[in-house]
Design a protein that fits this description.
It comes from Oerskovia douganii. Pfam families: DUF1684. This is DUF1684 domain-containing protein. There is one protein chain. This protein has about 210 residues and is α+β, with helices and mostly antiparallel strands. The chain has one domain. Helices cover about 20% and strands about 20% of the residues. The protein has two helices and eight strands; from the N terminus they run ααββββββββ. The strands form two sheets. Strands 2, 3, 4, 5, 6 and 7 form a six-stranded antiparallel β-sheet that branches. A two-stranded antiparallel sheet has the order 1-8. A hairpin with a 3-residue loop joins strand 4 and strand 5. Helix 1 runs antiparallel to helix 2. The mean pLDDT is about 90.
Length: about 210
């Protein structure tokens, strides 16, 4: 049985993992990615709070991951949604089995050159945080979409140096760090899926996959 302390430890480890990734990626994003892949595999294989089902763990040898592609790393401005904070703001209500309905509000978008745009969602309940899922057209990726940023749970690739009170807010968006949601391993999980504004009309064979890309 997964205890509350197991979940706390999982969150703590994920936070440390992403803190190290942010530090290393300043000079060597590919090395940061290599560390992330190995650390994610260790957590999924061995941690009591892993979403990988206990009966699947003996055969678990790691998640298929695409090779690092430096062209898929961006630092882009967060373009504010003009309706944010108003009754007209776009909302995403996600029903879960344990936490009721989890509310998100669209607060902006990230424009990725040559790929399209991704909506940025803010959690409008306890803890707050930003959430950026992504779905693509590759048959090798999880059909419901993957996650790039989920800051309330520690998945945070950082912000650029221009994140200043009088400047444009920027976020680091590296598609190589797209990871599978927990429901990809255990159907008992209820995961937010990528809405239309988080769907790219391209195949992305980077990040965590559900099977090796052809």
């Amino acid at each position: 049985m997964i205890s509350e302390l197991h979940v706390v430890d999982w969150r703590r480890r994920v936070q440390r993992l992403y803190a190290h990734v942010r530090d290393v990626a300043v000079e060597d994003p590919a090395a940061a990615h290599e560390y992330w892949v190995a650390s994610r595999d260790d957590l999924l294989a061995e941690h009591p709070a892993s979403p990988v089902l206990p009966e699947d763990r003996p055969a678990f040898t790691g998640v298929p991951v695409g090779p690092y592609d430096a062209s898929l790393r961006f630092e882009v401005p967060l373009v504010p949604d003009p309706a944010r904070g108003t009754p007209d703001a776009a909302r995403l209500d996600v029903p879960t089995g344990t936490d009721g309905v989890v509310p998100f509000e669209r607060v902006g978008r990230l424009d990725l050159p040559g790929l399209g745009a991704l909506d940025v969602w803010a959690l409008r309940s306890y803890g707050g945080g930003l959430f950026v899922p992504v779905k693509d057209r590759s048959p090798a990726t999880y059909g419901g979409g993957r996650y790039l940023l989920d800051t309330i749970k520690g998945a945070d690739l950082g912000s650029g140096p221009s994140l200043l009170p009088d400047g444009d807010a920027t976020l680091v968006v590296d598609l190589n760090f797209a990871y599978n949601p927990s429901c990809a391993y255990d159907p008992a999980w209820a995961c937010p899926l990528a809405p239309p504004g988080n769907t790219l009309a391209v195949e992305l064979t980077c990040g965590e996959l559900v099977r090796a890309a052809a």
